[in-house]
Amino acid sequence: METLLVIGGIWLLIWIVRRVYKSSSQSATSSLSRPPPTTKQPEVYQPRPRGLRHPHIVFDNHIGNSGGSAPSNEALAGLHDAFTGAPLNAALGLYQCSRCTVYYHAESVEVLEAENNSRCVACGVSSIVALTATEARTRTGRDYRPDVVTLTNYRSHFNRVVTFEGTVRSIKVSRRGKDYAVMFENTSWTKGLKLVFFRGSVGKVGGPAFIRSLQGQNIRVRGLLLSHNVFGPEIIISERSMILETWR
Q1: Range list for CATH 3.30.40 in the chain
Q2: Tell me: domain 74-138, CATH 2.50.20, correct?
Q3: Which residues lie across from 170 on neighbouring strands?
Q4: Residues 109 and 87 sit within 8 Å (Cβ to Cβ)
């Protein structure tokens, strides 16, 4: 009887060991077959490089007015913008009258388009064209020297850039408070000759304080002389360099 109990105990011990081993094997196998846990990566904004956004864009060879390097042409040395009188700078965009060959910067052409029907201030013909970089390097042209006029003879020089000399009698401000008229005659502002500073050019010439300082001054200016059908005779000033001299 004791022998049977011993044998039974041994078999029970073997069974228990097998069960424990089987359970451990299954657990190990299960942990090996399970994919490792993943850590969710935070979302990160990655902007596309600017240089690759539109790789198909090709720029033409017209000279723009954005600055930067510009073609060199020794023939342009000493020549000036026919409208403002500023020395030519190809980086500002070059235009030329195909008839009389005077030059303009891009901003001057914009003023002529708005105020003078795109007519050249030297010959009066609408024949101003943009120059390419190649043309700017090879073209030749001429300088424009405007006539000197005064109150006695300005009415025979309309639609031309002139050099005017006179005394400032009064300064008037537009109703919107952004434009200025520097008067040379003691009469209605719609009838008397005046310098006109539109709001876009006020800052370029020195601001309202500078314009008001012209009161009572003798002044010599270079600008486009017009006879407006509503506002009367006027000289448009768009840059400080167009005011050549002031004195008392």
Answers
A1: 74-138
A2: no
A3: 183
A4: no
The whole-number pLDDT of residue 225 equals 93
Specify the amino acid at residue 97. Answer: C
Q: Is the Cβ–Cβ distance between 23 and 30 less than 8 Å?
A: no
Strand-pairing partners, residue 222, are 163
Tokens representing residue 112 in the block: 């002529």
DSSP-derived secondary structure letter, 190: T
Q: What is the pTM of this model?
A: 0.62
CA 154 vs CA 54, 114, 120, 150: distances in Å: 54, 22, 18, 6
Answer yes or no: are the C-beta atoms of 173 and 179 closer than 8 Å: yes
Say which amino acid occupies 236.
I
Asked if residue 235 lies in contact with residue 229, where contact means CB atoms within 8 angstroms, the answer is no
CB 112 within 8 Å of CB 128: yes
- Cβ neighbours, 10 Å, residue 63: 21
CB of 145 closer than 8 Å to CB of 81:
no
The alpha carbons of the chain give a radius of gyration, in whole angstroms, of 41
- Tell me the two tokens of residue 225: 């002389």
The residue ranges of DSSP E strands in the chain, in sequence order, are: 94-97, 103-105, 128-130, 148-149, 160-167, 170-173, 180-183, 194-197, 218-228, 232-236, 243-247
Question: Beta strand 232-236 with 180-183: parallel, antiparallel or unpaired?
Answer: unpaired
> Does CATH place domain 148-247 in 2.40.50.140?
yes
User: pLDDT per residue over 64-110, tens digit each?
Assistant: 343 444 445 677 888 999 999 999 998 899 999 999 999 999 999 99
